Amino acid sequence: MTEQRRKALILGLLVLTLAAALWPLPDDEDSGRSKPRSALNAGKASGAPLSRQGEGMGNTATQGSPTGETAEVKDLFPVQTWAPKLVVPDKPAKPEPPPLPFVFAGRYQEEGQFMVFLTEGDGMYTVREGDSLPGGWKLTEIGPNTLTFIFSPLNITRSLPMSELRP
Questions:
Q1: Per-residue pLDDT reduced to its tens digit, 25-79
Q2: Rounded to whole angstroms, how far apart are CA atoms 79 and 85?
Q3: pTM of the prediction?
Q4: Cβ 161 vs Cβ 167: under 8 Å
Q5: Cβ neighbour number for residue 112 with a 10 Å cutoff
Q6: Which of 34, 47, 73, 132 is the most exposed place for a label (fewest CB within 10 A)?
């Protein structure tokens, strides 16, 4: 193959490729297939704005055409953030008092009234009905087998069983 013939063959193939790329295709409306259109051409063709659907990654937009077809266009650059999504609970949790910090140590009866000995860590308290204790607790009732306390900030009662102490 000569140099001149080779150049002519390459030039001919280039012209054919260019003609095939620029040649307009006939509009086949009768066939069931629709031609894909770019998002820019779809918006210019109908003049209607794109409507957004969804949030976050993978946003899509739908475009209505005059023939009733819709073309789906994927959002290539959705809004992204590093901030965590805030989760709002349906209803706030009911506040709970802390556990009773006291341990029953004993009781003593004087002139018809009971006195109770309670320990908390290294400390010891001698209390009667109606006395307030540290931490917002108040002894409201001394029963035959239980002590009833109220946590004043939340107005919630708690019971402490009195166990028999053995020497």
A1: 766 555 555 555 554 454 444 454 544 444 444 455 555 556 666 778 888 888 8
A2: 14
A3: 0.45
A4: no
A5: 5
A6: 47
Structure tokens at 64: 């209505």
φ and ψ of 61, to 5 deg? -130, 145
The Cα–Cα gap between 117 and 107 comes to 6
CA angle 111, 116, 117 (to 5 degrees): 130
Question: Two tokens at 161?
Answer: 């069983």
**CB neighbour burial string for 27-64, b if at least 16 within 10 angstroms, e if fewer:** eeeeeeeeeebebeebbeeeeeebeeeeeeeebebebe
Distance in angstroms (rounded) separating the CA atoms of residues 37 and 71: 8
